[in-house]
Design goal:
This is Homoserine kinase. The chain is an alpha+beta fold. The protein has 10 helices and 13 strands. The longest helix is centred in the C-terminal third of the chain and has 20 residues.
Length: 309
């Protein structure tokens, strides 16, 4: 049996709406992401779903995107035999942690490995974006790219290359907190205005380009100063219960900056001090986690991306 793990990811990373994403790895060594187990079958797709969040998925396995990925593979390769696929759903749906991307990436990576790598990296990444877009409503690579390839990824969407890795700060700790509620990506996207003032567009371009520059220069102070969201957070913050209060409290605790992971409700907060990160984690556990199933982790960036385990 082949087992594949695909890490959780932050879309946008605050400053890079739809253009920046990063994969997450808890510092305690635990795995924060979905797994897919795959083995052979005589014919057809035999699908099952397990894990702490499996009950939030469609009851009929044929409605699951991982099942559909497997059907696509068998059809594309014109296989006469079949495959047995089990999705272990470890990420909550609608969390802002790239839940759908994790399932799709783990599924397609596992299928590609199992059937002898019929797709190269760029072709497989294109498939991942296409299938994940069926869930989120539109094709965006800011979750699938870091989930698949690891690290922090800048979306290029050029003719030949979807994304490129940019340097990250090895001494940064990313505290992420999921309060236990789900928010629809489509509904959170609908909160955003159809048009922006020219000054906002200029600020967005300045912040993102300066953040990328600071990343290459390893200028942490400049990167933190530029790590702010002018496109989405002003319109989404009020719709995430407790977010505004948490952001203020984390600043008081000494965290360097705080933002919304993806479209929320998960937040991220950055520091270069582990003791401060642990204090922030404790505060969030007590004050931000509102439902059973909520959690918080101190993370570094996952540089490995999706892999066989």
């Amino acid at each position: 049996m082949l087992t594949v793990y695909a890490p959780a990811s932050m879309g946008n990373v605050g400053v890079g709406f739809d253009l920046l994403g990063a994969a997450l790895a808890p510092v305690d060594g635990s795995l924060l992401g979905d797994r897919v187990m795959i083995s052979g079958a005589e014919e057809g797709v035999h699908f099952s779903q397990v894990g702490p969040w499996a009950h939030k998925l469609p009851a009929d396995g044929k409605d699951n995107i991982v099942y559909q990925c497997a059907e696509f593979f068998l059809d594309k390769l014109q296989r006469q035999d079949g495959v047995t696929v089990c999705l272990e759903k470890n990420l909550p749906v609608g969390s802002g942690l790239g839940s759908s991307a994790s399932s799709v990436v783990a599924g397609l990576y596992a299928l590609n490995e199992y059937f002898g790598l019929p797709f190269d990296q760029q072709a497989l990444l294109g498939l991942m974006g296409e299938f994940e877009g069926k869930i989120s409503g539109s094709v965006h690579y800011d979750n699938v790219a870091p989930c698949y390839l690891g690290g922090m990824q800048l979306m290029l969407n050029s003719r030949d290359k979807a994304c490129a890795v940019i340097p990250s700060f090895d001494n940064w700790y990313w505290v992420v907190a999921y309060p236990g509620i789900s928010l629809s990506t489509a509904k959170m996207r609908a909160l955003l205005p159809e048009q922006y003032d020219k000054s906002v567009a200029i600020d967005f371009g300045r912040h993102l380009s300066a953040f990328v520059h600071a990343s290459y220069q390893q200028d942490a102070a400049l990167a933190i100063e530029m790590l702010k969201d002018v496109l989405a957070e002003p319109y989404r913050a009020a719709s995430i219960p407790g977010y505004t209060d948490a952001r203020a409290a984390l600043t008081e605790l000494g965290m360097l900056t705080t933002g919304i992971s993806g479209s929320g409700p998960t937040l991220f907060s950055v520091t270069d001090d582990l003791a401060t990160a642990e204090k922030a984690k404790d505060w969030l556990m007590e004050h931000y986690i509102s439902e059973s199933g909520g959690f918080t982790h101190v993370c570094k960036l996952d540089q490995l991306g999706t892999r066989c385990v």
